[in-house]
Structure prediction request, 644 residues.
Amino acid sequence: MKGRNDYLLEPKLAWRNVWKNKRRTVLTLLTIVVGCGMIIFMNAIATGGHEQMITDAVEINTGHIQIHEKGFWENQSIDYAFVPDDDLLKMLSTDERIAAITKRVNAGALLSFGNNTYAAMVQAVDPEYEKKVTVIHEKILEGGRYLNVSDRTGIVVGKVLAKNLGVAVGDEVSMISQGFDGSIAADNLTIVGLFDTGNPELDQALVIMPLARAMETFTMMGYINSIAVRLKSVDDMPSVRSDIMKRTDAEEIEVMGWDGLMPELVQFIIMDDAGAYITDFILLMIVAFGILNTIQMSVYERIREFGVMLAIGTRPSQVRTMILYESVFISLIGIALGLLLGSAVSYYFSIHPIDYSDYAEEMKVWGMSTLLFPARITALNLWVTSLFILVLAFVFSFFPAQRASKLRPIEAIRHL
Amino acid sequence: MSIIAIKALVKDYDVNGIAVNAVRGIDMTIDKGEFTAIAGPSGSGKTTLLNIVGGLDYPTSGSVVVGDRDLSGMSSSELSDMRLNNIGFIFQAYNLIPVLSALENVEYILLLQGVSKKERQDRAREILIEVGLEKEISRLPKDMSGGQQQRVAVARAIVSEPEIILADEPTANLDQKTGANLLDLMHELNRKKNITFLFSTHDSMVMERAERLIQLSDGMIASDEKRR
Prediction:
C-alpha cells in the first residue's frame, strides 16, 4: 500500500511534535547547542595548541624533517656523518613543498671561560640558510646579534649556558671536542650574541657556530651530520619524508620527521588528546542523556496518543520511525546551532589566541615554550562532532521509540 | 448477511494473580448495516467484546470473523491493516492526534491508506462539512469543544467508508444535547452509507435509539432485542 510508504507522514508528524512542547524542545536544544559548541571549541583549541607546539618546536631547531647518516640521532655523535649526493640536494631544492633546507654539523663539546667549563651541543650552520629554516635568530637578546656570513669565529650561545659560564657578548671562550677524523678539535670562539628560546634544553646547552669554521675545526672534509628541512605545510611531512626516503639508501641514511625527532612532544600530544577525548565523552553523554530524557518524557506523555494511532491502523514501525525523526530533528537543529556557536567562539580564539605569556616562567618549569594557544577549526572536528551527536541521539532514542511501537493499543488508550 | 460472527468467545484476564473472566462464552452475529448497542453495567464485558471485534485484543478462546476474515491467528500487522481498511473507531475520550488539525486528523486515515493528497483533502473536507464542522476545519483539537472533537472522531472513523464502526461509549463525555446530536449524525450515516455501527454504552439515550440492543451481564449475553 502506497500510504504505508508515504515518506512524508512520519517526518511531518515528528516535526509538529517537536514544537508541541516548545519549552522542553528549547531546553534540549540548549543542551545540544552548548555541548556541541563546547566540544568543537575544545577540540579546536587542542588542535590549534598542538599545531602551535609543533610549529614552535620545529621552528626553534629541529625543522620538519632531518636527514642523517643512519644511527646519528640515536648516538648524537659527530662520527655519523655523510656527504649528500647531488640528486638528493637537487630534489630538496626543487620540491615545491619544501620551503628551505640547512646543512649542519653537530658535535658535543666542552666550553671553557676562566675557571668555568660546561658541556655544550655545538651546531654549526650556514647562517643564511639556517635563518630560513629556524627562528633562533629572532630570539637573540638585546646587545647581541645572530651570526652573519662574514663571521669566522663568532658564536651565539644560550642565555643559561652563558650565565653558567659567566660570559657576555664579546667574550672569547675555548672549545674542545673530538674531530670527525678522531683528532682533538679545539678552537677559540667569540660570543656575538645570546639567545633565549624558552626551551630549557637549548638555552642551557646549545652553541651555534659558522659551518665553514666547523668544517676546519672538526676536520669534516666535506661531511655533514644533518640536513634540516622546513616545509611549507606540516601536513606534507609524511609524503615529503617518503619521497626523500625513496631517493636515499635506507641502509645508510635515516630520514626522520618531526614526530620521530621529538617523541616526547608526540607523547604529550597523545596524552593531551586522551584527556580531551574523556572530556568530549562526558559532554557527549550529557547531550545524549538530555536527548534521551526529552524523548523518554515525550513518549511517556503521549502513550495514549500512540495507542490511538496504533488502534486506527498506524503500524508500529511508523510510530517508531516518527519518534526517531523527532530525535533526529531536535539533534539536527541543535547540531547546526552548536556548529555555529563552536565555530564562532573558535574563530574568535583563532584571531585572539589564549595567551600564557604572563606565566612564561611557570610554563618553562613544565618544559613548555609555547605561550600562545590559538584555536583551529578543522572540517574533521565539525564532521566527527556532528556525527557522534547524531548517532548517539539515534541510539539513545531508539529504545523509547521501540517501547512506544510495542505498546498494546487498548492498554495505551487507557493510560492516564 | 452477517458481517461479524462471534462463536464461543471467552476472554480471561490475569489481574495481579487473580483470574478475571471478562467474557464468558458469547455467541452472536451482527448483520451488515445494523445499528447495534451493547449495553451493560461496568465490568459486564462490553468494552472487552468491542476490543476483540476490533482486533485490539486477543480472545482466550473462541472465534471472531469480521467480513470473511477470521481474526484468530492474524498477526499484529495484519490486524493493523484490517483496522485501517475495514473498521472505524470512535473512542470515549475523542482521542484525536493533538498536533493535527481537524482536517488533518480526518485525512490521517486516508494518508495511511495511500490516497492521493487532493482526493484525501476533498473527502476529509466533505465529511467534516457533513458532520457540521466546516468552520472548524483548520482548528487543532485543543481549540475545539468536546462535542466538536467527537464529531471529528466520527468523521475520522467514517471517512474511509469502513464496513464497521466500533464506538466505545461515544456519548459518555458529552452533555445530553451534544450526545443526541451525535447519535442523530451517526444514525444518519448508518442509513445513508449502510455502515454497520456497534456501540458499547450504558447511556439510556443510546440504548433507546439503537435498532438492536444486546444486554451483557457478567460477560454473557443477558438479552438480545431487535427493534426494527
Notes: Chain A touches chain B through 28 residues (CB under 8 Å). The two ends of chain A are 33 Å apart (CA to CA).
